[in-house]
Design goal:
With 626 residues, the protein is α+β, with helices and mostly antiparallel strands. It is 25% helix and 22% strand. It has a 7-stranded parallel β-sheet, sandwiched between helices. Strands 13, 14, 15, 17, 18, 20 and 22 form a 7-stranded antiparallel β-sheet that branches. A hairpin with a 6-residue loop joins β17 and β18.
Length: 626
């Protein structure tokens, strides 16, 4: 055999050997096994056969309905189908986007459903509907999309999760400057005691609080001890769920501690996105000049302001200043990020190597020299979501989300909704038992163009991670987003913050926040929707840092950790500023608070602490002199 023939034979032999290895072993470059790839391909194939009505429905609900009627198309991945949204009676709580009209309400009643809330302004109907009836409702022309009602979190952190931390430094109320039995350490840490002593205590300013609940019994008890003012008001029917934690009362306590002359109002944020948005507007219209919340809904837009953020903007345009917790999903600087943001990178076909054709492309989380078509969960979580840079309610580029076991051999959960022009750019998976550490997160581009992507594990952590943890109205255009620092982070006791000695908490969510669309869906940079080409615009988030880990009299909130505790401290300082300068606009209040903030992270304004730790003394002095 000649040298040229021998070389050709060797090339062919190695080519056949390579094919055999591909067909008999996991794909090593991807480390996703054939069995998992085949399940992904089967899910993609089933999705490709969705009817027009099914394309309007949350895929978790579509696949749950298919599994309930033993449809053969789901046989190979039935174990990965989530049914936790379906109650024991076969009903699901959903948000129906379209025309919130009496006609739709009647249609829901006709199939045995119940409307819980209607929002004509945001085109959302919150309802309980039988699983079997979803396709009937989705077939209506006045229905654009049906999504399982979004879960949400309150941005407090259990002290057990926070780790051992001595509370200490309790401020008991004994002088004329105090009211009630117990005071947040933030009263002194933020220098509010100095301003209250000078007569700036929030008199004439009403502060609205949104959280889970403020029960009548707890509010009455705290009024009796002086820890809430006698005129504390809960909007009619908006006290929140009967099984709530009374986190709203704990937040109102903090406001009262720093601004004891301010009036307080409360409304729940727990009855769905549309109700939350409506209550923001209701508090402003009831006279609140300062509003604060501590809630994040998972389905809020990351790259465009959604209904809640738009309600914030409406309240701010009417003269209120709005604060929100930045959230507790970690940050890149302190090694706790559970977020990955970046542009889609083609990692090869998502189909099985033994299948002659495939649907979709895997996303490569790795680098050019070190490809990796999955990310790894390093801290367990119950929720993982995927979002991308399409407009809300009008996504035409279709991405799907898969979670594999730690070995990469099977799909344990997935979300594969259709995006055909009326849906949000959004996929979500959840597990009441939590996704195990080591689980692999896979993103597939089912169809369409490359877009900026966002994977969020809520309070989990990822092996390949980025900045940009805070999102939604918490990082909205008109929101003052608040990071958290422990009141005794300098370890000097109950003394005023100094700045550099007061870094953010390890769990405090970082920024910045990239957005690609105006609130109405208009592109900011038409045709450019990627991080890598500097599309959209970047918002400075968070804006400020404030105290957490304080004591409150509300049971279960001593200590009170999380950005949930930080936001009401900042809101109370805004009340002092408004009293000093009643004619200030929301922008002027923000300027007064940021101008004298104490730099506490990287030099200058940064992605972790924003402008720094807000101080009542400096904010009020600025307001009085400008």
């Amino acid at each position: 055999m000649g040298d040229s023939k021998r070389a050709l034979w060797v090339i062919r032999a190695f080519g056949v050997l390579g094919l055999v290895l591909l067909l008999t072993n996991p794909v090593k470059a991807q480390d996703i096994s054939q069995s998992a790839l085949q399940q992904i391909a089967d899910i993609q194939a089933a999705k490709a056969n969705f009817t027009a009505a099914q394309q309007k429905i949350d895929s978790n609900l579509v696949f749950a309905a298919l599994a309930a009627r033993s449809d053969p198309s789901v046989q190979s991945f039935t174990s990965a189908i989530s049914t936790q949204a379906v109650d024991g009676a076969g009903n699901v709580t959903v948000d129906i986007r379209g025309t919130a009209s009496p006609a739709l309400t009647g249609a829901i009643a006709l199939v045995g459903g119940t409307v819980l809330d209607n929002s004509v302004q945001f085109g959302l109907t919150h309802a309980i509907v039988p699983l079997w009836a979803l396709e009937t409702l989705a077939a209506r022309e006045d229905v654009l999309n049906i999504q399982a009602a979004s879960g949400h979190v309150h941005n407090s952190i259990a002290s057990a999760r926070r780790g051992p931390r001595r509370t200490g430094g309790v401020v008991t109320r004994t002088g004329a400057a105090f009211a009630g039995a117990l005071t947040s350490q933030g009263y002194i840490a933020h220098g509010a005691n100095t301003e209250v002593a000078q007569g700036f205590n929030g008199t004439g300013v009403t502060v609205g609080v949104l959280s889970d609940s403020a029960s009548a019994a707890r509010v009455a008890a705290l009024i009796a001890t002086g820890d809430l003012p006698a005129n504390t008001t809960v909007l009619a029917g908006q006290a929140g769920p009967s099984n709530g934690s009374d986190e709203g009362t704990a937040m109102m306590e903090i406001v009262h501690d720093l601004a004891p002359g301010a009036n307080l109002m409360f409304a729940t944020a727990d009855n769905g996105v549309a109700s939350f948005a409506a209550n923001i507007i209701a508090l402003q219209q009831a006279g609140c000049k300062v509003i604060v919340d501590d809630v994040t809904y998972f389905n809020e837009g990351a790259f465009q302001d959604g209904p809640i953020a738009r309600a914030v903007s409406q309240a701010v345009a009417a003269g209120a200043v709005y604060f929100s917790s930045a959230a507790n999903s970690g940050n890149k600087t302190l090694g706790t990020s559970g977020t990955w943001e970046g542009d889609f990178v083609d990692g090869g076909p998502a189909g099985s190597p033994i299948t002659p054709s495939h649907t979709g492309e895997l996303h490569n989380f790795g680098t050019v020299g070190s490809p990796q078509n999955y990310d790894v969960l390093t801290v367990s979580t119950t929720v993982i979501s995927l979002k991308w840079s399409d407009p809300l309610g009008a996504s035409t580029n279709d991405y799907d989300l898969f979670v594999l076991n730690g070995a990469g051999t099977s799909v344990t959960a997935f979300s594969a909704a259709a995006q055909t022009g009326t849906q949000d750019p959004y996929e979500i998976v959840s597990s009441s038992n939590g996704f195990a550490t080591g689980s692999r997160v896979v993103v597939v581009q089912h169809s369409g163009a490359a877009r900026a992507l966002r994977v969020d594990t809520n309070r989990g952590q990822l092996s390949i991670n980025t900045t940009g943890s805070t999102f939604g109205h918490n990082a909205g255009i008109d929101t003052i987003s608040t990071a958290a620092t422990y009141w005794n982070s300098a370890k000097t006791g109950t003394r005023p913050f100094t700045g550099a000695a007061n870094p953010i908490e390890t769990f405090s969510s970082d920024g910045p926040r990239k957005i690609f669309y105006q609130p109405n869906g208009t592109p900011i940079t038409p045709g450019n929707f990627l991080f890598g080409t500097n599309g959209g615009t970047t918002l400075q988030k968070p804006d400020l840092t404030a105290a957490d880990g304080i004591v409150a009299k509300t049971p279960g909130f001593s200590p009170f950790f999380g950005t949930s505790a930080a936001a009401p401290h900042a809101a109370a300082i805004a009340a002092l500023v408004f009293q000093a300068r009643p004619g200030y606009s929301p922008a002027q209040v923000k300027t007064a608070m940021t101008a004298g903030a104490l730099d506490n992270m990287a030099a200058g304004v940064d992605r972790d602490g924003g402008y720094g730790v807000v101080m009542a003394t400096l904010a009020v002095q600025y307001a009085l002199s400008h």
